[in-house]
Amino acid sequence: MTTQLPLQRPTRLARATVLAAFLWSLLAFPIGLWQLLDPESGPYSHDLFDPTIPLPAAVPDWLAPSALLAAGLGGLLVARAKPRLWPLTALYAAVFGLLLTTISPISLAGYLCAFLIPIGAVTVPVVLARGAAARLVTAAAIAAVLVGLGVTGVVDYAAVGSFAAKLGRTMAGMSGYFFTQIWTVAGAAIWAALTLHLVLTRGDGEPAPAWAAPERAAKWGRIASWTAFACALPYGLQRLTWLTPWPYVGGPIDDDAAFPLEIRIWGLLLGTAALGGGLLCLGLTQQWGERWPFWMFAFKGRPVPPMVAIVPGSIMAAMFTFMAVPMAALGIRNGDPVMGMLSFPFWLWGPALGAAVLAYAIRRGRVKVG
Questions:
Q1: What is the pTM of this model?
Q2: Membrane-spanning residues where (predicted)?
Q3: How far apart are CA 191 and CA 204, in angstroms?
């Protein structure tokens, strides 16, 4: 059974994907030249760079950056590929997403999300308050709490500032490496999105598959969103054990002294970020994912802009999917691949979240198969 849909013009999202692939390919030239001209300290010579399949030592230093330059040139040509050339765009996604990535992007994303939690706890209540007076009162109350935490010594703001400054200096020193890693995984996501667009594009009069109908997408999207939610539980609950006398990191930790207060705080932030992300996965099939819920006083009842869910959901789905291979490789090197795949089920989490986002985009009319 098929659903007949009229031929659709490329959506704004599809055009943006083509443009992103073109711009990403342009960036391959300065990055490749950087590595080619400075092989000792280039972004792919950093100590943290640990690709899934490292090149043999016998490979000359100029070969990999030269291949990167060639990939950039090819990307400029492939960015506007015809639907029948989708294997080429899929090859770009596979090479950059599964072979050249490391676990650094997911580590960076996790810690950035952890940092956003206390920032969000301070700013979100003010934004959600309805009316200028309510916002002012909320801001004053939060400021009073923060001052109280500092006066009573519960929070040492000087130590927090020192930690943030030290972390900022460390990140600045690694900015080149992190930029290229983000560029790598972003490119994989862009090429994957372009591949999806080409595969879903139908010719004039060619019927769309039945699964692409909004009512069908609602059914399989619900299964995908609950699967993604379940995948968030192992990591989130494991990190929350750092708040208990029985911390768990790949196995029980007997020495409680190894988990000072700072580590427990990280456990709280990382665990909360993972579980919060899991709950957001459910929003892709719930009513509050289409209209702001009642507790968001300033926005309640208004439609949720689809891209608010589609953009971050797509980014995380791509990152989780591409982290599956390097995470499995890390588990193999550490001698415990099964535990790594269970604690970090990116092999299932990424595809499930991607399917949930696709179903949401179909139902909200942002992706049309036809």
A1: 0.79
A2: 12-37, 57-78, 85-103, 109-129, 136-158, 178-200, 220-237, 265-285, 306-332, 344-362
A3: 24
